[in-house]
Structures are given as structure tokens and as C-alpha cells.
Amino acid sequence: MRKYLAQRIARAVLTIFLVVSFTFFLIRLMPGNPIDLYVQEQVTTYGHTYEQALEQARGFFALDVDAPLSVQYAQYLGNLARGNLGQSILSPGTPVSSLIKKFLPWTLFSVGLALMISFTLGVGLGMLMAYRRESWIDHVLTIIATVTTAVPNYLIGILLLVVLGVQTNLINVAAIRGSLSPGVRPGLTLTFLLDALSHAALPITTYVLATAGAWMLSMKSNTLGTLGEDYVGFARARGLPDRRIAIAYVGRNALLPLFTQLTIAIGFVVGGSALIEYIFNYQGIGLVLYESIVRRDYPVMQGVFLVITVSVVLANLLADLLYGRLDPRVDLTAEPV
Amino acid sequence: MSSSIQESDTPDPKRAPELAVIRPRSLTRIALRSPKAVVGMIVLLLVAGVAVLAPLLATYPATEMHAIDRFAPPGTTYLLGTDFFGRDLFSRILYGYRTSLLVAVLSVAFALVIGSVFGVVAGYTGGAVDSAVMRTMDILFAFPVLLLAITVVVILGAGLFTTVLAIGIVYVPIFARTARGPTLVVREHAYVEAAKAIGLRSFRIIRRHILPNVSTPIFVQATINLATAILFESALSFLGLGTQPPYPSLGLMVSEGRNYLELSPWPAVFPGLAIVLAVLGFNLVGDALQEILDPRLRQTWSAA
What are the extents of the domains in chain A? Predict the structure, then answer.
């Protein structure tokens, strides 16, 4: 088991390392690479000398932009190890790490909460659908789930805005833009919590509507599969109460495959929210990513990529480890084929 | 998009579901009994039909502007209304379907060919080749899909074929895994060993014995991925990284319409619903195929 764990962790670290290196060379080798472009722009637009421009680029990218690529690569890795991700080109003087520190918590809060709601809702309704198979409630929920999984999340956001904001005026859309109202300070106060929740309400609703359907459908099909198992029939024959069978026998086994999906979804919490945050102008890491892409702010882009990659790889690792814990039938130490 | 990502661990071939190979005639018969398949096929035929016949069905040229009829409501002159420039939404949606379907089909075809070759060769050869190919696929998998696509677009510049390539690359590992699983199982069968024993070359064995067994799961996977590819293209276009204006693309139309929701919701809502319809069609057909072809799922389906 210890050997397996070490292997897994080594593999995760290696993957992160490879992805980071890949991104580094990709950005440096692309035609019209951002650093050259930046230096050029400084020279032509602002009339800096070539040396001055290089000096500035050095600051933003935290790299010796003049040095050979291999030296830069070593510098880049060294900087990473020290947590130095360079500076934003668009807002000079702002380190990328501080941008991430400032915006990431909002995404973790809103998408994390949304994921929990969506998962719980999906699992509950999915089991209900399986137990009431072929009843009207199963048909209605199946249709709703099938249709909502085909709707792009940004469209759900827009429809919410149209229906709640424009057509019925139920919500004052302008008042809940951003992640906090002006003047409200973060802290453990009721005002802050309520304000944060009211700003996150629409993004969370959008996320839940966009993803709950998929959880419902997989939970339904898993539960249907489990209901046919011999051990469930045997538990019934032994006269166990239905509640207990539903939770300890059916629910537990039907949930197993979903946990892998859940851990993977956790990895996508960071990256999967860009479109939703963009629609509602919610000040999370997704919005930072979107703006850095649109305005080609490479140091920021690279930094957010890194955060996303690390979280996805860690989530995969968690999924692998957790699976053996949750399902004793899986032998983790067995050699992978 | 997280649902298309599978566990990074390689599945045990003994536990990998063997999809039944069903003759085409009985396949149609079973499909006709599944309401999902019937509804899905009707939707798909409709969407593909209007895309192909767009030049005949369109009531106006897709980029023609009518300055006096900006934001016209749906009605008899403009079936679904007009957008900010007074362009007919119905005609634009028809042409938008062309872009969406073209990108989806080309990108899935690209991923299917490259991914299957990787998967089959890795699974058939085994050993170091297998490890090397599948580890590379793992790394591609570790890249969040939208980011991988965005990286490709940022490098090559936005455009129709960049979009195809971006989505295609993202889907390659999915097909590699789908192809490798059954290859591992078939490789151990007696007829493959017999073919090896009489000295057939690997290429011929793969073509005659492996491919027919791998094609069914790959085909199912392709249908599912066509649905996600349409969503993907629309998301990239929505972000301004996919199809470029003035070409009609459904995602781009939603994105443009979004700025004028207070004036008229239709320019954002109708193209959005058009996306939903196409995705729903592919999803239904993909689900139905999976249920029909996977014997374990078929039991629950026919019992229901």
C-alpha cells in the first residue's frame, strides 16, 4: 500500500511537472511569442530603448528574457518553487500570485457550494427516480435531466437574466453584479455572509441547473443496476427495513462510481466556472482567466493554468486513493494492466 | 464537461464491458422500440436537414442587414425576429447549424482516427509502447479541456480549422482509451493467437480481427462526443475564440445577443435553443446506442 501511494504521488508530481514545462515551452515557442511582442510594443509604441524594454519584460515575466531558453526554463522552475509567478502585464506591479490569492477564494466558495448542492440534489433525485421507476415523477425528472444536460451553462445564465432580471424584474441585476457590494468588508459578520450569498446566488443557481441533470441520470442508472443485485434481494428476504436497505445496501453501492466523478468535478471547480463568472461578472478566478486570455496577459494566464492543473491532478490522485478506501473489493496494490 | 473525463487509472480488461456486436438489421429493430432513439433520430435528421438545405430554406442572406428592422420581434416578416444589425435570426441559425455540425463532425473524425490508432497500437503492442502512449494521453487528460483548446487557439489564431484542431486534440485521449480497452481483451482471444501462429502480419491482424471488435464502442463514443463538440464549439465561439464574425455561429450569436437583453432577448435565446436541440439529438441517440449495445444496460432497458 505504501509503495502504491508513493508511486501515485510520484506520478502526480511528474504530471504537474510535465504540464508546467509543456506550457512554458509552448508559450515561448509560439509564433509571435508574447515576450518578443511585448518588448517590440514597448520599443515602437512607448519609445523605450531596447534595453529598457528588456528590463521591463524581465520584471513582468520574472525571467531573464535575453538568456538562452534553457537558462530561462531553469529560472522559471526556480521561481515557481519560490511561488513567484511573475507580474500581470495589464495591471503592472501586481504579482500574479496576489491576483490568484484575491480571486480564487470567491470561485472556491461559489462553485464549491454549487457543486455540493448539485451533487446532493442529483443523488437524491436519482435514487428517487430509480425507486419510482416508470412512474410519472420518473418520466418528468428524466426529461428535465436529459434536456438540462444539453443546455450550455452560459445559456442557462442568460436565460436566468432574461427571465428574472429583464422580463419579470424580480431581481435587481445591477445590484448583485460582482462578488460583493461596495462598502461591505469581508469578515465574520452577518452582513458580509448575506451579501456574499446574494451575489453568488445566480452563479450558483446556474451551475446547479447545468450540472444536476448529469448526476441525476448517473445515480438513477447506478441505482437501477444495484437494485437488481442478489445482495439486495437477500437483504429484503432477511426482512431488513426498506430505509436501511436503501441507505446501506443500494445507496452505498450506487454512489461508489459517482465518487470518482465527484473528485474529478472538484478538480474542475477552479477552471469550470469561467463562462458563468463572465456572464454575471462574478469576481472569481474564472473571470481573471477569461480577461487574461482575451487581452493576452500571458503571465496571468500561465499562473491560472498552473492552479487549474494542480487542482485537477490532485483531484485525480484523491479519486484513486479514495476509491480503494470506499470499495474494499478494489485491490489498489494490484499491478495495473 | 467533466462527465466526459474518465478515471485516470487504466481499467482491468476483465472488468471492461464487452459490447455486444449486433447485426445492423436487428439493431434497427431494437432501436425502433426505444423512444429515445426514435426522438433523437428525428431531431438529428431535422437539424442535419436544415443545415444541408440552408441555402434553400433561408428567407434572407445570413449577413444581410436591415437597418430599419433592428430587433424586430418574431413574426411573419422575420420568422424568429432580427438582431442588432437587423439580420434575420432564422436564416442565421440555419447557417449557424452548418458551422456547428461541420466543426463537430471534422473534430470528432480527427480525434477518432488519431485516437483509435494510438489506442489500438498501444493495446496490441503492449509493453513499453503501451506505457509511453498511455502516459502521454494521461498528461493530455490532466489539461483541463477548455484550457487545452484555448491554448491551441491562442497559438494558431482563431478560425474554423483551428477550432476543429483544438477540439480534436482534446478528444484524442478519449478515443485512445476507448480503443485500447477492447483491444486488450481481443488480443488474448484464440483466433488472434491462431492468426499470429499462421504468420499473419500485425497490420492484417489488426484490420481483420481487432478493428471489427473495437469499432462498436468507438462508434458509440463518437456519437456522444459529437454532442459535446457542438457545446464546445459554441463555448469557444461565445468566448470569441471560435468562429469569427461575420460568419454565423450559434455560440457567437448568443454572445452578441447577450449585450442587448433589455432591448430584445430573442437574438440570444433562439440561437441558444438551437444549440440545445442539436446537442439533445446527439445525446439521445448516443444514450440509446449505448443502452442497446451494452448487454448489461440492455437488461435494465428491456425490463423497464
Answer: 96-326
